[in-house]
Write a structure and sequence with these properties.
The protein contains 19 helices and no strands. By secondary structure, the chain is mainly α. The chain folds into 2 domains: about 70 residues; about 350 residues, no CATH class.
């Protein structure tokens, strides 16, 4: 065992994770490896094994986190159900005549799908497969089209039911149900701001997004209305089944996730998409994604245990609380750290490592814990669109048909404005905290 100052240990542990990720090691391996090595060096094998086993087991035994595989299954099954295609076809007829109408349609579908899916991979991939070809083939600018897919698809990690919120709740000791309803208005605010940005941009530069020809959307009003109603009814029923049961206290988030998983199976059956191949792909995706989330969570929880036992949290707390500007200086430092980490580390790692450390600091600074939690989650929306570790970039790049000519440069240029829009939404949530706190107060 060696004797090191808490400040040096904090630098070695946090720096070690960053170095591991930049060298290309999986996040779970970086977190777990650094934590185990530092624990053995500082406390010896007996304390290390007890610390790691106890915290690993408590994570795996957490009932709330059982919702993770259920929500992943729900989102993946919905991806195969055909619901998104029906919504796109219906909204295409209503909004295609506007300049930028297909991009607005893409964002709106991303918003609706977000309230059913909860994982960014499913929503971004769906939009890339459905919306990108329709926009590019209609003469849309590639950056505008890719940006709309990234912005709209990334809402799936914020608007409930969200895996991010299911993970955040246990880490911060907050009700997952209240986090769900705190996220609704910020999520819809972002969606509205994205749509306004697209509309204004296309008014200023109309050549970026020509309207769909009248002949392609000349359908009787009754037919258009019928298609819209038919396409929107299944997701609305699903949202009410899952989130309504939580809001009215009928079911816990974990139980509601089970209801949602069963509902998506019935939806896929109703759309004629349910078969053994779809069930097999959904099951494999669920195991892979949920296993990754829970493994990172367990190892990160153990890592934080080592971090706190070495008194590193006190060093971080003292550093942050000494920030210039009082409580808002503290807030700015935490938000900046989370923003910078989003360039290099998966959002899972940021939540599992940072939240247990910064939540007590925020409480000591006098912030409402629910409001502060949601500001972290809105901040992490930017991590999906800030290279090099930008999930949305890689999902779109991987899902887009090569014949469309979408390059990495197109995607990055398209995503960039959405980062500033998220900053604007955060400013609004600071100025008007009831955007976050109103709905949870009704529960």
């Amino acid at each position: 065992m060696i004797d090191l100052s808490p400040g040096l240990v904090a630098i070695l542990m946090l720096g070690g994770i960053l170095v591991g990720v930049l060298l290309g090691y999986p996040l779970a391996l970086s977190i777990g490896g650094v934590g185990i090595v530092m624990s053995l060096l500082l406390f010896g094998p007996n304390i290390s094994s007890e610390l790691y086993y106890g915290r690993f087991f408590s994570t795996m035994n957490n009932y709330i986190l059982l919702a993770v595989p259920l929500f992943v299954f729900m989102g993946t099954m919905l991806e195969h159900s055909g619901v998104a295609e029906g919504m796109y076809d219906a909204l295409y007829l209503w909004l295609g005549g506007l300049r930028g109408g297909l991009a607005v349609t893409t964002i709106l579908i991303g918003t609706v799908v977000a309230a059913c899916v909860g994982i960014i991979g499913a929503s971004v991939t769906m939009l890339a497969l459905i919306a990108l070809p329709a926009m590019i083939n209609r003469g849309y600018d590639r950056s505008l089209a890719a940006g709309a897919v990234c912005g709209g698809g990334s809402l799936g990690i914020l608007i409930p039911p969200s895996i991010m919120l299911v993970v955040y709740g246990p880490m911060a000791g907050l009700s997952v149900g209240k986090l769900f309803f705190a996220a609704f208005l910020p999520g819809f605010l972002l969606s509205a701001m994205y749509c306004i940005y697209v509309i204004v941009l296309c008014l200023v530069r109309p050549q970026l997004a020509p309207p769909v020809p009248l002949a392609d959307r000349q359908v009787p009003f009754g037919v258009k209305a019928g298609k819209l109603l038919k396409s929107m009814l299944p997701p609305v029923v699903l949202i009410l089944a899952v989130l309504g049961s939580i809001f009215f206290g009928i079911a816990s988030p974990t139980e509601a996730a089970g209801v949602g998983a069963m509902a998506t199976i019935l939806l896929a059956l109703a759309y004629g998409r349910l078969n053994r191949a779809v069930l097999a792909r959904t099951a494999m995706t669920t195991v892979r994604v949920a296993g990754m989330v829970l493994l990172i969570g367990a190892l990160a929880f153990a890592f934080v245990g080592v971090f706190m036992r070495a008194n590193c949290d006190k060093v971080v707390s003292a550093f942050v609380l000494d920030a210039v500007g009082g409580k808002w200086g503290v807030f700015a430092v935490i938000m900046f750290i989370c923003f910078v980490l989003g360039f290099f580390i998966d959002w899972l790692g940021i939540i599992f490592i940072m939240v247990p450390i910064v939540t007590p600091i925020a409480a000591e600074a006098g912030f409402d814990p629910l409001w502060f939690a949601m500001m972290i989650c809105v901040n992490l929306q930017m991590s999906f669109m800030t290279p090099p570790f930008a999930y949305a970039l890689f999902y779109v790049r991987g899902a887009a048909d090569p014949a469309l000519g979408i390059t990495t440069g197109h995607i990055i240029r398209g995503m960039f404005p959405y980062v500033f829009i998220i900053l604007g939404a955060m400013a609004l949530c600071i100025a008007f905290p009831q955007i976050i706190l109103w709905l949870p107060s009704l529960m």
